[in-house]
# Entry
Amino acid sequence: MYMKVEKILDEELILSKLAEVKDPEIDTVSIVDLGMVYKVAVADKNIKVTLLPTFSGCPALPIIEKNCAAALLELDGVDSAEVEFTFSVPWTSDRVTEDGIRGLKEFGIAPPPEFIEGDGSWHVDCPYCGSTFVTMENIFGPTACRSILYCRNCRNPFEAMKLVSSNMH
# Structure
């Protein structure tokens, strides 16, 4: 006797599928590890995911939206997948997970810097050698969310995610 077992669409299953969706510009990091997933709602066989963009003008948002919807539609029992972005809740760089930090470093990008209370400075380590002897070459990197730095120790230029924090004044 054949019995069809339908998988329950729970948040854990959905998040594991979204973890397969990589940032189009940084293929070593998923949108889950970047902390972009804000809300997941399931109604019957329909999924609605709300994402937080790292920056509002990010040109990769339409690609991320399309890739998320396509990934969710691969799940058994899903009839529709809606993906939306919200700007009412800001993304902050402290949402990046430990796996996200490792993925950024693997790609050659320093993770979001630590904000040092008091003097307002940043602490950035070189993703190649770990040195703290770095200088900022240009606050404007190839994308709105990254800056260009230079390591005085291993002499490599590198990009660093910009610090976006709700604690900054």
In short: The helical segments are 11-18, 61-73, 98-107. The chain has two domains: 11-85, 109-161.
